[in-house]
Amino acid sequence: MSSQSPKIGFVSLGCPKALVDSERILTQLKAEGYEIVPRYDAADAVVVNTCGFIDAAVQESLDAIGEALHENGKVIVTGCLGKRAELIREAYPDVLAITGPQDYASVMNAVHEALPPKHDPFLDLVPSPRRLGGADDSDIGIKLTPRHYAYLKISEGCNHRCSFCIIPSMRGDLVSRPVDEVLVEAEKLVKGGVKELLVISQDTSAYGVDLKYAAREWRGKAYRTRMTELCEGLAELGAWVRLHYVYPYPHVDEVMPLMTAGKILPYLDIPFQHASPRILKLMKRPGNIEKTLERIRAWRAAVPDLTLRSTFIVGFPGETDAEFEELLDFLRAAELDRVGAFAYSPVEGAKANALPDPVPEELKEDRLERFMEVQAEVSAAKLRRKIGRTLTVLVDEAGADGAVARSSADAPEIDGVVRIVDGQKLKPGQFVEVVVEAADAHDLTARLRG
Ligand code: SF4
């Protein structure tokens, strides 16, 4: 890229969905001849992709905007917090523009206004810039994840109205990408070296419901825009396929045969959030918790190696001691493999803020600690059972101390890892077989299989 190209700094905050937005914006910026630079002082302007999910994320986003303004001065804000423009304007009246999540065109307009793209005779010969995220993408674009894994966003928005969540008001109702678009993108990613596809959305089980599960053609075969059929298509690509944000609707049973056949990873990320029917009702959660344990048992009978990951909120308004104990009992009975938990914290604009009987801060923290202790025991016991077993793992990095890899049970960033003590010579993106030698509450230690 010419040194005369306008230079953009980019700060990406938030969840994997925001990361995918960042990748799309960066891809478009590059396609239009902007240079992406890693330092504030080298940039002509800075784009900050924000998160607004919980108060801590709002603060982190505001801090990032403040830092960019201080270090650079020309700042364009996008992402979830962009929906609360007044909050940003109040703190930082000097930001150049504020746009919301997935509003790629507005971000690009704001960038054009601040920094007109340079006419580049080479780039201008390139046929029209890619339609971002569409089936006609001419390559895989810019990825912020390492080369060997990628998030595959299958839809935006959500049809649920969980009382603690403001995502539907920020991102709107569910809008699914037609299945052929997703499969074409996945195919390009795999051709580009991606070994693991992480399917993300707000509600993967609901995929396609807005499109009435419309059938589309891919590789000469009809696929419906629906979770099971999407998985069948993805299974054709020969990469690891990992499902996130799956709600326990009955049709989740349909993907079990794909897992047993080794076509998609035996892994489900299901955000249960709680186990007490009354609290779940107050949370307005989808799914039927009464049947959850039964379903988990049936899934495990069908797929013995199934890894279940979940997230929970403790200290939701009105949560009694007995309801909290109910949650701990569920945790012990369900023996989930991976669990994340948060002490409830109000999110501005969420309906749950109006609920009576907030749990005192200290009690919330206390419950969180007890929750994590119970889960650490469950997790340690489950991981201990893996000692002596041979696992296929995907290498993330390697160095003088060995390699860090992940098995089918470990999603990047959020789960544990498998440390390979003799993996110094391995390469990121490589699949190898290892024998597990030791385990702690989260991670495994292993050696290459001789
Ligand atoms: S399912 Fe509930 S928590 Fe998840 S995005 Fe939708 S409304 Fe929010």
From TrEMBL:
Comment on bound cofactor: Binds 2 [4Fe-4S] clusters. One cluster is coordinated with 3 cysteines and an exchangeable S-adenosyl-L-methionine.
InterPro entries for this protein: Elp3/MiaA/NifB-like_rSAM, Methylthiotransferase, Methylthiotransferase_CS, Methylthiotransferase_N, Methylthiotransferase_N_sf, NA-bd_OB-fold, Ribosomal_uS12_MeSTrfase_RimO, rSAM
Domain TRAM: 384-450
E.C. no: 2.8.4.4
SMART domains linked: Elp3
Domain MTTase N-terminal: 6-116
Protein name: Ribosomal protein uS12 methylthiotransferase RimO
Species this chain originates from: Mizugakiibacter sediminis
Name of the encoding gene: rimO
